[in-house]
Amino acid sequence: ARHPVRFEVRNSDAERKRVVLGGGRLENGKGMLFLFSESEEHAFWMKNTLIPLDMLFIAEDGAVVGIVERATPQTTSLRTVGLPSRFVLEVNGGWCAARGVKKGDRVRFENVPRF
Asked: For 43, what's the count of Cα atoms within 13 Å in the CB-facing half-sphere?
């Protein structure tokens, strides 16, 4: 199945720390894609985020290596899946469950810069 998402790209430390959610919301079908130069275990916190988000941790080859669903907003608890990833896609909380997206599924990116 195809589940297109239009996203803003975050590929620097400064961009990754900046939260851009207009009015504390993320429109349906939109997300934020975090690009990292290395595949490693990445961890996120939600201190400045106002809404629950699903976080898809994605390997270099496009495989979803894990998902954090409905991450609680405005907390400093670290979220990770304990496995290396190269990309993390954040979408509205509940997006994965509503579409049946799970660990092991594959993602195909279009027009994403490579390092």
From this structure: 7
